[in-house]
Amino acid sequence: MKIGFIGVGAMAQAIIQGLLNAKFVPAENILVHSAHKAHYENYAKQYGLTAEATNQQVAENSDLVVLAVVPAIAADVLAEIRDQLSTQKTLISIVSGVSLNRLEELTDYNLPILRSLPNINSQYGQGMTAVAANENLSGDRKAQAIAMYEATGSVSELSESQFAAFSAISGSAVAYVDFFIDSLSRAGVKYGFTKEMATQIAAQTTLGSAHSLMASGQTPAELIDKVCSPGGDTIAGILAMEQAGFLPSIIKGIDATIAKSTGNNG
């Protein structure tokens, strides 16, 4: 199986690195092309990928064709490769805001298509990806496409109507979690830790907490209650954060993210 990437920006590279780390396909079976020759050729050479001279060659020579360009040029790129796409290939889009219906309009109503929203953690095998397939993609072909993302983390099949909210609490939330970790580390610096040490402590604590939550099967609230002893330090901190508007600030951040992505931000 050959996987072609049209566009090799940060998200495409994260997926590619995740696939390489998982040994999902041989490196030479990953085909790449982008608008900047020096960038994609050097990247391909560094990791043993196959650099193609055109987008058409990527589409022609790939079984899975991953559209990884910015939304503004998606229509032009699809027009460019339309003749190389066929019902024997699967188009996988990571382009934000472009629906399955629109992808069909721009290509072929008979084409198997998977719309996806991966996140940057795919690079380390810890990605969280939402997928939605059109009616032409089913059975083994659908399983093959989804397996690409399973090699880089977890996958959730959702309706497209849920994509904007998913993007906010998964894709964008990577930055929000990092912001939280950085905030913890800054507090550590206030009380005498170096920034490097404080960041390591905060990051490992966040990682351990996430693992414990997933492994325990308990709710976050139940785990919070376990840590908060009556009259203790932790409950005092929780109440202070609540009084400072911690939860409303999170909700407002998610609301703003969704509003921006859907064009409902006035």
TrEMBL record:
Any one annotated GO CC term: cytoplasm
PROSITE patterns linked: P5CR
Domain Pyrroline-5-carboxylate reductase catalytic N-terminal: 2-96
Pathway(s) of this molecule: Amino-acid biosynthesis; L-proline biosynthesis; L-proline from L-glutamate 5-semialdehyde: step 1/1
UniProt enzyme class: oxidoreductase
Residues holding NADPH: N55
UniProt entry keywords in alphabetical sequence: Amino-acid biosynthesis, Cytoplasm, NADP, Oxidoreductase, Proline biosynthesis
A GO BP annotation: L-proline biosynthetic process
Catalytic reactions of this protein: L-proline + NAD(+) = (S)-1-pyrroline-5-carboxylate + NADH + 2 H(+); L-proline + NADP(+) = (S)-1-pyrroline-5-carboxylate + NADPH + 2 H(+)
Entries under Pfam families matching the protein: F420_oxidored, P5CR_dimer
Residues in Pyrroline-5-carboxylate reductase dimerisation domain copies: 160-261
Binding site for NADP(+): I6, G7, V8, G9, A10, M11, S34, A68, V69, V70, P71
Domain of life: Bacteria
Subcellular localization: Cytoplasm
Documented EC number(s): 1.5.1.2
Function (record text): Catalyzes the reduction of 1-pyrroline-5-carboxylate (PCA) to L-proline.
Record-linked HAMAP family: P5C_reductase (MF_01925)
Family: Belongs to the pyrroline-5-carboxylate reductase family.
Name used for this protein in its record: Pyrroline-5-carboxylate reductase
Organism of origin: Lentilactobacillus parabuchneri
